[in-house]
Write a structure and sequence with these properties.
Protein name: SMI1 / KNR4 family (SUKH-1)
Domain Knr4/Smi1-like: 29-185
Structural class: alpha+beta
InterPro entries: Knr4/Smi1-like_dom, Knr4/Smi1-like_sf
Number of domains: 1
Number of strands: 4
Radius of gyration: 16 Å
Largest sheet: 4 strands, antiparallel
Distance between the termini: 24 Å
Strand content: 5-15%
Number of helices: 6
Pfam family, one: SMI1_KNR4
């Protein structure tokens, strides 16, 4: 991906960049010949079941590299494609990956002046529509990969207080957008929100 593409926020979510895949493989250090990966057939079955096509390079990552990693990112590990973090909770609404993720800019609902009954339906969508949960940093901080909607391919941090997109163009971090940028930022041992 070119520097201009990173700055404008455009990502190729349809074809995996070999350089991105190489940096992701290096970051995770998986050397089992793809034995911990799902394989293309399982990824296609997941996509068909949920009515989505996973964005690249995540799609190739789970198909060919590994389906989750206890080492991270995030802090408590990268969960498998069809999994949720242990602290996700029971009794939550059924997640609908085919319905679009509703946000395109950061939202701090904790400070939203609208009444709770007005924002509650949007909150449910933020947590449960159009994204897969990659894992948790604990304390209700979940990293999501958007799979449907205008922010498809972007990573979001969704917490009990608000939601923030990951990527330098959003002003919170120096990392490039998308799964590859998120992994590279973690592998470089940088703070998630390191923008000055």
């Amino acid at each position: 991906m070119s520097v201009a593409a990173c700055i404008t926020g455009t990502m190729n979510t349809e074809q995996a960049d070999p350089a991105d895949l190489a940096s992701i493989r290096e970051a995770f250090g998986v050397d089992d010949g793809g034995g911990s990966a799902l394989g293309r057939a399982a990824v296609r079955a997941f996509e068909a079941e949920h009515g989505v096509v996973l964005p690249e390079p995540y799609r190739t990552f789970v198909a060919e590299v590994t389906d989750g990693s206890p080492a991270g990112p995030p802090h408590y590990g990268l969960v498998g494609l069809a999994e949720l973090p242990d602290d996700w909770g029971d009794g939550r609404p059924v997640r609908d990956l085919a319905r679009p993720f509703p946000l395109t800019s950061a939202w701090l609902w904790e400070d939203d002046p609208r009444p709770g009954e007005d924002i509650e339906p949007i909150l449910e969508q933020v947590f449960d529509h159009g994204s897969i949960v990659l894992g948790t940093d604990g304390c209700g901080m979940y990293w999501h990969l958007v799979v449907t909607g205008p922010h498809r391919g972007h990573i979001w941090l969704v917490t009990g207080e608000g939601a923030t997109p990951f990527g330098a163009e959003f002003g919170f971090t120096t990392g490039k957008p998308g799964f590859a940028g998120w992994v590279e930022h973690w592998a470089a041992d940088k703070d998630w929100f390191d923008a000055e």
